Amino acid sequence: MGNSTDLQEIEDCLATNKKLYKFYAAVMILIFILALPLNASILHLFIFKLKFWKSNSNNIFLFNLVLADILLLFCLPIKAYNFIHGERRSNNDVVCKAMLFMLFLNRGASIAFLTVTSIDRYFNVVHPGRKNLLRALKKSPQISIIIWLLLLPLTIPTMLETFECCNSHKGNDTLIESVVDSLREVVFFTQILIPFVILVYCTARIVNRLRKKTVGDTTKLKRAVFLVSSVMVVFSVCFLPCTIARMLLLIVRVRDKSDGLQDGAAVAFDGLMVLSYMDCLLDPLVYCFCSTKFKGLYLSNYFPFLVRGDPLPIESSTGNTPKPQRNNVI
User: Fold this and answer.
1) Residue 23 domain-assigned?
2) Domain span at 306
3) Rounded to the nearest 5 degrees, what angle is found at the Cα of 48, between the Cα atoms of 44 and 50?
4) Distances in whole angstroms, Cα of residue 212 to Cα of each of 201, 218, 221, 290
5) pLDDT tens string 244-272
6) N or C end of the chain, less CB within 10 A?
7) Distance between CA 92 and CA 320 in Å, rounded?
8) CATH number at residue 202
């Protein structure tokens, strides 16, 4: 009887383990508190200091990455509020669909700009000087708008209550419902797995290329290898666990009718989805602060007491940071 009740609560989007979901909520609140000022300050630098629209394409991609992360952050307090009250989603249908739209659009954008930036770095390192479509398109800011627009159709299938509560393939679906469930899950998995394969390939080729390069600054080469490797770490920590958990949940639903097992798989999936929001905190650390110029700019603007020497100058029109004669960061 207890297991049947638990399964019904999962189907109704109610949390069966309220203490655990309160812990999930606390984690989301902590991510929000730490990541919001970090992303907001970086956004401020891109707009008012670097003037990203006048600078190189990498700054445009990174700006959109930070924008996607900061928009995703605004969903976390609502999600945490629901978890604290023992609900896995909002009971308000409009709020529920708006949350799903924001969560999947902005997370998809974050993944997309991570991937595009890695592809751009791949061509710059492995095929320097070779003409390619991305190199031609990236000179125009419109490519970022195109990426956002392409993500919209992929977001629509996820804006359903059944997806939020992990009710796909419940076992009593009609043929049409089963097809819709399958299409929705395909969107979820391809949005993560295809970029992951691309990232693995680009990262492997970049690392291999940099390790074979014997001419140049060893410190810079090590920093570049660290940067591309960090991309894989962030992606693996934030997105792969929830993808695997989703896959296991679907297998349990289709093959195993044990109520307790389904309950545990759903709770684990929710927890790993919370882990995926760490992406908002890790992206700025990996992509922005691995650049010594950006790190120096950030510290000189927000923590000048940590910078020795003259403030770091900025050419606003180009976004370039000329090397100062004396500027040592502690």
Assistant:
1) yes
2) 2-321
3) 95
4) 17, 12, 10, 22
5) 998 888 888 777 666 678 888 889 999 99
6) N
7) 48
8) 1.20.1070.10
